[in-house]
């Protein structure tokens, strides 16, 4: 949180892995489970709640490119 504050990430801190988390209007996302490596290495069935939505926001993925069916 310290780094995000001083590098001026937009928005207020949001814990994203809880039901009903409001993910709009911020780029400061935090989780209550695991660490950064756990988050990146999580298997598809063990990802924290809202992970895909947060990644779409963080990397500015346009809606038409979200959840592709390869």
Give a brief outline of the structure.
With 70 residues, the chain is mainly alpha-helical. It has three helices and two strands, in the order H-E-E-H-H. The longest helix is centred in the C-terminal third of the chain and has 8 residues, at 51-58.
> Which of globular, elongated, flat, extended, rod-shaped describes the shape?
globular
Number of domains: 1
Q: What is the typical, i.e. mean, pLDDT?
A: 82
Major sheet summary line: 2 strands, parallel
How much beta, percentage-wise?
A: 5-15%
Distance between the termini: 36 Å
What are the segments in which pLDDT stays under 50 over at least 5 consecutive residues? none
The number of helical segments is: 3
The overall strand count is: 2
Arrangement of strands in the largest sheet: 1-2
Radius of gyration: 13 Å
The percentage helix is 25-40%
Report the order of strands and helices: HEEHH
Q: Which structural class do the helices and strands define?
A: mainly alpha
Protein model, in words:
With 70 residues, the protein is mainly alpha-helical. It has one domain (2-65). Helices cover 27% and strands 6% of the residues. The protein contains 3 helices and 2 strands; from the N terminus they run αββαα. It has helices at 2-6, 36-41, 51-58, and strands spanning 14-15, 29-30. The protein has a two-stranded parallel ribbon. It is globular. The N and C termini lie far apart (36 Å). The model has no long low-confidence stretch (mean pLDDT 82).
């Amino acid at each position: 949180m310290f780094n995000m504050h001083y590098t001026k990430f937009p928005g207020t801190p949001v814990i994203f892995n809880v039901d009903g988390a409001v993910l709009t209007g911020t780029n400061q996302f935090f989780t209550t489970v695991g660490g950064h490596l756990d988050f990146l290495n999580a298997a598809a069935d063990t990802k924290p709640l809202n992970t895909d939505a947060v990644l779409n926001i963080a990397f500015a993925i346009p809606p038409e490119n979200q959840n592709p069916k390869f």
